[in-house]
Amino acid sequence: MTNEYLKAFKHHLTYVEGARDNTIKAYLSDLNNYVAYLTEQELSCLTATHQDIETFLLSIHDYYQKSTINRMVSALNAFYSYIEVHYKIQNPMILLDYKHHQTPLPKTLYVDDIKRLVDTFSTSERDLFHLLIVYLLLGSGLRVSELTSLTFSNYYQNEGMLNVVGKGNKMRWIPVYDKAKVLLDDYLIKSQNYRTHASKNYLLIRKNGKPLTRQYVYTMIKKQGNLALIKDNLTPHRLRHGFATLLLEQGSDLRVVQELLGHASISTTQIYTHLQPGQLHKSYDDFHPGAKIAKEIKDDEDEI
């Protein structure tokens, strides 16, 4: 059904709008990427809301230049305007909180949100695996694609470090904080029982022996966010955003955050400075979000 809408939209651009071939080609390429994302989320272009579109834009903003994302927004605007007129479907772009030349930011994730999120996990093997994923996204600032592609060669167990190859094949070192390391080391022992030849090199695999996928992570994170009553959609990128903003709130130097996130340009990192940073701390542990969460939880326990 979606392909029919895209074909009709292409016909409209070609014969009604008289758009240039390069514009048509670029718009259709952008829309195909969008449709592929929706398919992963078990959505369609007809059921997607403005929040779904915003989440899509957030999920790609680390991988594309601003000009490309702005073009994607233009393609989505044109497509949904056409759909609204010709198929009488409400245009979700009207409610989208996005401005050209600005990188969209996820909603702020507060420490209370994180504590509620952590509390949604039980001590079952499956939940501890899911909690490990959350800790790695939130506590290490990984992109979901980096998380799912981690191999044993990326993990330096004795040092408690990840050697991650990110966007543009740029390598960076990321500390794995204590709680995540305990869960990860325990998981690596237990997962030996269901590793297959196809997944033997991957650091994180599902219990069916298959490698971790982006869709699996997105679905799990969204479900746990709903259980934790976190406002707006919780996504892997929102956890990565939380990692950055918590670091900056605690006084981390912007260039330290840039290095940890794997941003090529500090201007990309600066989008996280919408919060007021405190004083600079040179020690990573002083402002690490995992350490902050652990301290908050410990303080609560001490009061009981």
Task: Explain how this protein is built.
By secondary structure, this protein is mainly α. The protein folds into two domains: 1-87, Tyrosine recombinase, N-terminal domain (DNA polymerase, domain 1); 111-302, hpI Integrase, Chain A (Orthogonal Bundle), CATH 1.10.443. The protein is 56% helix and 4% strand. The protein has 14 helices and three strands. It has helices at 2-17, 21-40, 50-60, 66-87, 111-119, 125-140, 144-148, 178-190, 214-227, 236-249, 254-261, 266-269, 284-287, 289-303, and strands spanning 155-156, 161-165, 171-175. It has a three-stranded antiparallel beta sheet, with no helix packed on it. Strand 1 and strand 2 (161-165) form a beta hairpin. Mean pLDDT is 81; it is low at 275-287.
Overall tally of structural domains: 2
CATH superfamily of the largest domain: Intergrase catalytic core
Second-tier CATH architecture of the largest domain: Orthogonal Bundle
| Distance, first to last CA | 57 Å
Number of strands: 3
Order of strands side by side in the largest beta sheet? 1-2-3
Low-confidence stretches: 275-287
Assign the structural class, choosing from mainly alpha, mainly beta, alpha/beta, alpha+beta, or little secondary structure: mainly alpha
The CATH topology of the largest domain is hpI Integrase, Chain A
Give the oligomer, counting copies of the same chain as homo and different chains as hetero: single chain
Rg, alpha carbons: 21 Å
Shape category: globular
Q: Determine the mean pLDDT.
A: 81
Share in β-strands:
under 5%
Helix residue percentage: 55-70%
What profile does the largest beta sheet have? 3 strands, antiparallel
**CATH domain class name of the largest domain:** Mainly Alpha
Enumerate how many helices there are, as a single number. Answer: 14
Order of helices and strands: HHHHHHHEEEHHHHHHH
